[in-house]
Each structure stands twice: as C-alpha cells, then as structure tokens.
Specification:
It is a single chain. By secondary structure, the chain is of the alpha/beta class. 29% of the residues lie in helices and 28% in strands. The structure holds adenosine-5'-diphosphate (ADP) and magnesium ion. The site of magnesium ion (MG) has 3 residues, from helix 1.
Length: 231
C-alpha cells in the first residue's frame, strides 16, 4: 500500500516576484507503507520544502500530493488537521522544543488536541520517555539537557500520537557522532520493529546506511532514485 505519492509536483517561493525560487521541479515519487526512505542532496536543493509539501504545510503550485491513496487537496480542513496531528510525526534538526515547559509537557503536548485526559497524556508520555531511556529527564526543562538528550525528546514528541509516518529533517545535523548514531539506530528500530514509514532528509552520506530507497536531489529535482538491499 502506498503511503505518499507525489505526481508532477512543482513548488515556488515568491512566485512571480523578482526573488522567485523554483524550489521543486516536477517531482514524481512513491513511498510505500513501512519503507525507510531518504531525500539526499546538498543544502538548498529542496529537501525541507519537499517535507513541507508532504506534511501539508505548503501547497504545491501544481501537481498532486496523495496520502494513503487520497489527494491532500481534497481533504477537509479537519482532515488536514487530523493528518498533521496523528498521521505524521516530525523530527527537526534544531529539536524545536518549547523552552518554557518541562520535558514531560513537551512530549504530552501533541496529545492535548485530541481530547485525551491529562492523566493519560502524562502516562503515555512517560512510557515513550522510558522506551527512549530518558524517563529521568521528565521534570527538567529543555535548557537543562544536552543536544543528544534534546533530540531524544524531539523524537519522543514525534511518537506521541503514534503516527504511521515519521518525517525527520536533518535529525542528526546538530549532533556529535555518538548521538547521531543513537538517533539513526532509533529510526531503524521504529521502521523495523514498529513498521513505521520513515522519511529522512540528510546531506550526510554515511547517515543513509539503513535507508532502503534514496531520492537524490539537485536544484529542486530528483535526479536519481536508488533502491538498496539490506546488508
Ligand atoms: P534544503 O532543505 O535542501 O537545504 P530548502 O528546501 O530549504 O533546501 O530550499 C530550497 C530552495 O528554496 C533554496 O533555494 C532556498 O533558498 C529556497 N527557500 C527555502 N525556504 C524559502 C523561503 N521561505 N522563501 C524563499 N525561498 C526559500
Ligand atoms: Mg533543509
């Protein structure tokens, strides 16, 4: 079953203005449920933009984004909101934790919009933090954590609503190699053990080691798709 399909997607920033950027050029791709894929290419080639389009943050100027067989443009406002709340989880390069609230609250927050009781939210957040080995950090604030710990919290938050698809935008970009290694191991585990579809953006070749389908990008286009066999 297909998770995400893009058909002839074009996207511009500042279209029609002097500063116009043709950020995505005729993108066609298919990501199946349970795949681990990556968008790989140099800075500025359109990797983040493609994630914005997949997550419904940006609308393509032309072409289609098809999510689990349905055109995202045909989703109602409510369906788009549900897709973004429970259909996908996003991991960021800069962690994007809310500095003024505790770790447990950062991880519980995505559940707050689903009408889950506070008690249940905290219970589930603690279970995820435990799985990631950071339950002891629950009562701390983001600034009290190392980068590697903050990214674990970012990952916990992405898992909060148990989405079938995880989008990770340069998740190891700000980490030392030991922590980067840990994050890659987690992504692999979510894919293999939990069956999640993983879509990771990276510009570092070594971080592709567990990826099974690589979309090579250049100047807004996919220039090659490579299928890799398990080692
Ligand atoms: P990557 O994630 O691969 O580094 P991006 O998707 O961020 O690339 O950017 C693709 C292109 O779009 C680049 O030329 C970039 O400068 C441009 N771009 C990105 N975001 C914006 C924006 N908000 N406004 C205008 N141009 C943008
Ligand atoms: Mg980017």
């Amino acid at each position: 079953m297909e998770a995400i399909k893009l058909e002839n997607v074009d996207f511009y920033y500042d279209r029609g203005q002097a500063a116009e950027v043709h950020a995505l050029k005729n993108i066609n791709l298919l990501i199946e449920n349970g795949e681990y894929v990556s968008f790989f290419g140099p800075s500025g080639c359109g990797k983040s933009t493609i994630l914005y389009v997949i997550s419904g943050v940006e609308k393509p100027d032309s072409g289609k984004v098809i999510v689990h067989g349905r055109d995202l443009m045909e989703f109602s406002v409510k369906e788009v909101a549900i897709y973004r709340q429970i259909g996908i989880g996003i991991i960021f390069q800069n962690f994007n934790l809310i500095p003024s609230i505790k770790i447990i609250e950062n991880v519980s927050l995505p559940m707050a919009f689903l009408g889950i009781s506070l008690e249940k939210r905290k219970e589930r957040a603690m279970a995820i933090l435990s799985r990631l080995g950071i339950a002891d950090l629950a009562e701390r604030y983001p600034y009290e954590l190392s980068g590697g710990q903050q990214q674990r919290v970012g990952i916990a938050r992405a898992l909060a609503n148990d989405p079938p698809i995880i989008l990770a935008d340069e998740p190891i970009g700000n980490l030392d190699s030991a922590n980067a290694e840990n994050v890659l191991n987690l992504l692999k585990e979510f894919n293999e053990r939990d069956g999640k579809t993983i879509i990771m953006v990276t510009h570092e070749a070594w971080s592709l080691r567990d990826v099974r389908k690589i979309f090579y990008m250049k100047d807004g286009a996919i220039i090659k798709t490579e299928l890799k066999k398990p080692d």
